[in-house]
Every structure is written in C-alpha cells, then in structure tokens.
Amino acid sequence: MPDANSLYGPLDPAPDAGWTQAPPRMGFFTDTSVCIGCKACEVACKEWNGVPDGGFDLLGMSYDNTGALTANSWRHVAFIEQPRPAGQRTPPFAGDPTGPTTGSPASASVGAGTTTDTGTSPGLPPGRGEPAARMAAGPEFLGMPGAQPPGRGTGAESRTDFRWLMMSDVCKHCTHAACLDVCPTGSLFRTEFGTVVVQEDICNGCGYCISACPYGVIDQRKDDGRAWKCTLCYDRLGAGMTPACAQACPTESIQYGPLDELRDRAAQRVATLHERGVPEARLYGHDPTDGVGGDGAFFLLLDEPEVYGLPPDPVVTTRDLPRMWKRAGLAALAMAAATVAAFVGGSS
Amino acid sequence: MSPDRPVGALFRRFRDRLAADGGVPAESGSRATGVGPGRTDSGAHEARLAPHPPRDTAPTTGRRRRGGKGGGEQLNVPPAEFTSYYGRPVLKPPVWKWDIAAYLFTGGLAAGSSMLAAGGQLTGRPALRRAGRVTSLAAVSASAYFLINDLGRPSRFHHMLRVAKVTSPMSVGTWILSAFGPAAGLAAIAEVAPRLPERGLLGLGRRLLPPTGHAAGLVAAVTAPALATYTGVLLADTAVPSWHEAYPELPVIFAGSALASGAGVGLLAAPPGQAGPARRMAVAGAALELWGAHRVENRLGLLSEPYADGTPGKLLRAGRALTAAGVAGALVGRRSRLLSAASGGALLSAAVCTRFGIFHGGVASARDPKYTVVPQRERAARRA
Asked: Is residue B242 a part of any domain in this protein?
C-alpha cells in the first residue's frame, strides 16, 4: 500500500520506493555565502563521471560560461553581479546621483541571447534580452571577461559598490521527483540513499523527464540521445565516499552528509549569518513541506531564488495527477456518450 | 562543442552584435513585461534590514519607467516585473520535436475514426465502418512511427514495455496503444474479407474475418476514448507552465478534436445518406474543442498568453475558424457530397491546427522565464 504522501507532502523517499533497511537519506547542502566561484566542482564532476565537455566558448553574459545545468554539466556555477552593498557596509557613493548607464543593460541584453553548442538538447536555450537588461541595470556591468576594473572607464563619480553572488547548482534529488514519476521505462530510479539516478542502459531518450523537471535540470545528450544528470556520485556513495564535487570544494561551500544533519547545520548557518548582519540569507529547498517535499540537495542563498535561475515556488507536477486522470476519464466518458448519441439519435 | 571554431569566436560575435545594437537594450519583449529601472534589489538600503520584497508585482506609482518604453500600448494583462538569471529560461523546454504534435493529431484521428467505425458497424452503415477502420489503422501506424521516431534511442522503443506506471502518462499511453493498435489493425484487415476467394484456406479467412473484425472493432472503439484523452494528461503532467495549468481542459480539447477528426473522415468518405451520425459527431466534437480552447485562452491569466501570441495563437485561431466552417458546412451540406467532403477536410485541418497550436503554446511558455517565475511568485504571495 503506497504512502498517503506518495505524490505530495513530507515523506522519506527510499522506504517509500521499497527499500528495506535503507541507510539515512544523503544529500548536499550548498552554502553559497562561502562559494568563491572556482568551478572546481564542475571539473571534479566531469573528471569522476566522465562527462563530456559542454562547449568551450565564452557566453559574454558574465564570468559564467557554463550557462546552465545540462546533460554535459552536472554542476553549474552561477555568477551574478549586483550593484548593492554587501552586508552592513555603507555604499561609498550612497548620496551621489549614480543613475544607470546604458551600456551595462545593453551588454546583458545581447549576452542573454548568446548560446553555445553544449552537445545536448535543449542544452542552453537562449534567454530574453529584456529581463537580462533589467537584471544588469546597475551602474556597471562587469560581465565581460578582461574588462577594466569598475568605474575606470567611466570615472569615479559613476562608481557604486557591488557584490558578486556565486552558487554551484546541481540536481535537487527531490523527495517527490517528477522526472522519476513520469519515466515510462523505469530508467530513473530511487536509490537506497534517497537520491534519483538514471540507468543509462535502460533510458530510451523519450524526453519526458526533461519536460517534467520543475528545475530544468535533466537534459538530453545529442550524440547518444539519452537523458543525463547528476547521480550524486552513486558509485562513490556505495563505497562510503564523498561525491566528487563536495570532495573538491575548497571552501566547503558544498557539504555532503545525512540530510537531517545537513538541515540542522544549515539552520545554524542561517542564524549565524543573520546575527552577523546578512539578513538576506535564506534557505532554499530545505523544507519537507514545500512543493516537492524538500530537496535532497538544498541551498543557502543570498537573494531571491530566481536571481540564481531557480524557480521561486516549484511544485511537483504529479501532485495534480489524480485530478488529471479524473478529468481525462470524464472527457473520455463525454466522448463515448457523444458518439452513442450521434448514432442512436437523429433521423438519418 | 565545435572543434572547427576557434575559441572566442562566440565572444567576438557577441561584441559585434553589441556594437551593431548601438548600446540600446533590445526591448521588443512581450506585452506583459514592463521594463523598469528596478534592479534585482530595488531598495538596497532596506535590504540591509529585511529581505527585499518579491519583484513580480505590477509596477505601481513611484516606479519610474525608463524612457517610457514598454508601456506604450494598453495592456490587458498587468505588466509583470520579475527577476531571472540573465533572462535565461528556468525550465528546459520540451525536447519533443514536431513528431509529438503530429502524433497528437494521428492518435486522436485513430481514436475518432475507430469509434465512427464501430458505430457504423453496429447500426448498419458499411461506408462509415470501412472508412473508419482503414483510417484508424493508417493513423495508428503513423502514430507508432512518430512516437518511435521522436525517441533519442529509437531502437530501444520496447523499453517502454518493461514497466506499467500510472504516474507516467506515457507508460499508460504505451499500454493503451498496445491494446488499441492490434485491435484496430485486425478490424481493418477484416475489411478485405469480401475480396477473398470463396474456397480453400483463404475462403476460411473470408468466413472467419468478419466476426473477428467485428470483435476487434469493438475492442478498438472501447479503448479509443482512453487513447484520445490520455494525451491531455501526457502534456499536463509536466512542468511546462501553460500545459500544466491547463490540465482540466486539455483532455476535453483533445476528446473534442478526436471526435471532430473521426467525423471528418465520415464526411469525406461516406455518401450523404450514411453520414448523419458523422454530422452529429462533428457538432459534439466541435463544441467540446471550442469550449476547451476558449477556456485555455482566457482562464489562465498570464499563462493564456502563449496560446494567443505568435505562431501558436495563429494556429489556434485558424483551428477555431476551420472548426466553425467545418461544422457549418456539415450542417448546411446535408445533401451535397462535395460540401460534406469539404467540411470533413476542414474539420481534419482544424484538428491539425489545434494540436500544433496547443503543443507550441506550451513550448513557448517553457522558453520564457516569465511564465515560470511570475505565477510561482503569485502563488507564494497568496499562500503567505
């Protein structure tokens, strides 16, 4: 008998998937407040898992040239530049009329449309210029690698303070994983650690998981047609080892461990940051009562989720599945009734 | 990765485009997005004390609009201001190619025509039966082709048969097709019985085929409504905003479209004397389809927009016009074979337009971060 919360609500996923004597649920806590954007996680992941490259070109939108999570990038370090004071520091030119310059939003706008061949589909779809321009509508856009230091080209009077946000994104290993629910081949499965893994010898590339993922994580590799994503290093976990990205992280921004422990640690970290005057620190994906039943990989963010390209309120699509089948049943009945009426009613 | 291209070529192209644009941000966006001066952290000073407010609220007084741009036309949806990661989509748009949109049509056509065939079979209208069965087999074969062709690994299509999962509409659909396909095939094959010789082994076939076809036709007709409506769940059970939120209507639209397609086959193939039920099916199907499409285009607020704009909007409007024309022609042209056939063709074209319109509307909604972020922000705000 499946759990009442099988489709939605708090749940321990491994026992629900049929594992007996499952080990504690394992996961990632990614603390973006200490991320330095070194991308060691991206590299370690590729090295360990033999992930192909995702295109070597510059995107022209920021120091992030990976762009998004794809079948060929299972970790993605997002990079955001914001003209705002970090923490309690006073902006150096707080009183100055430092209106936005037109150059920055323009380059962001053009950069948003840039894409590169990641060898995957849909890979890195182009964005829209307008929201990108709005995002970068600050005094200075530093996204161009090799650009001058802030304000040098425009004069000191146009300088304002700014901050850089860096965040290593990864598959969330949801409690209620839509990709797993909709997979028609059983290729995606729930491991004993509560993570979600694709079996590449089963996947036939139907692409349903890609449309179902509320985070836009899973993606299709073009040359082999199958869907790929982070496995949370299932092979290393089985041997009692730490996943490659967490192992490589030099600042312990990526922490790996039993999910309960990580949630406690994360709550303490947020409290510490609030005490130290970083009121914008918040957790994302830690709550077992959220739309996906909590993420196996959750984050500490310093701004709204959508700034990092995360959905602000994701809900697993299968929450509504019973209602969908009911509507389909009603429509099917209506169809049958209409046909019967068409043949028995009427004169000709 | 393209080894033939020097590293940095993309960046040079980007720089050229930037220079060509003259430093003016492209603001040819959609009608629902206001371009405000508001940066991601409007109110940075307050942010030191409190997390900043959600930014998808409609611009209110006190928010300066840059250069007055973006607010020129009268908007029927309030401009939504939202933040995103460099304007990139949050979701991955569906990787399904046009095959899947085509399958939506052929699957519905197979379902509708097998129901028409069963009706013809039970009420003694051989023209409807024959046309329905043959069309059904052709359409279900095309469906199988489209579905397998769309796979990333077509040679592994049989992996679909490893499991049966109610949480996966695609798995459910696989099993529906597995029941429907052979039945529809058998029913169509039975139509050759009158052409077989009277004696010998083939003569046995001549005697056995009609009752077998009768039974198979009924099995196909019973499975058909499931085949026609599960595709609505198939699309709705995704994170694609405009598909998911339309889940109450999609099965209705697809059921109506399938009925209208079946009716179209009847109108095309049967003499006016036998086409009465097809006319009534056309009316019922068109009513369901038009009602559903109207709801989807109006009920969903911001998420209705992808169904009204661009190519999907054109397709859905064409579908509506063709449906109306087809029904009108079917009712007016009771005695005219030519007019009936023309209206049958119009109904079939309408079904194609509607299916492709719904398909591409959803894809458009996944490509734009606005349709992901703004409704989710509103939902979170309602809950708070």
From this structure: yes
